[in-house]
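I hope you will forgive my troubling you with a question about protein structure. The matter concerns a single protein, recorded as an amino acid sequence and a row of backbone structure tokens. Please examine both parts with care and let me know of anything in them that strikes you as inconsistent. Thank you for your consideration; the sequence and its tokens are set out here:
***
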Amino acid sequence: MSHYCDLAPGHPWHGPYHDREYGFPVEGDTALFERLVLEINQAGLSWLTVLKKREAFRHAFDNFDIERVAAYGDVERERLLGDAAIIRNRLKVDAAIHNAGVIQRLSETHGSFASWLDHHHPLDKDEWVKLFRRTFRFTGPEIVGEFLMSTGYLPGAHHEECPVHQRILACGPAWYTHRQPGLR
């Protein structure tokens, strides 16, 4: 079975994402929201397709400004569904808008999306999936697993032999600091 660490190095799109983002702790709700939207849009498609459209997603979704996206109405929804530069799937667009509103509410109750994630950490993947399904739209096991691995809440983003793995550990991802007393 191929692993991302085997496929990504040297690739013009996968390489930079693998080396600088995948598995590293993510700071800030905007970045977390972006990653969630991208993971949702990857469903049924290749990650390469999403990476190539990433800048278009940023533009289309107002740089993932949570308040702006949460306020999108019919005009913005139709604009997104007509934008050939992004993935035009009504369920995914609706999920992004709905989930922005959910993140706003989580910020009111927990201070931020990141604080909500930290509040529930550590959970195993199945528990995370149940929580996400109760909380968000379009968040099945693969989307939740990839979102949490890619943002440092679940292990498995890199082989232990991958040089990036040690750099990630040095950043103290949630899955690792919880296992290492005194690191968090």
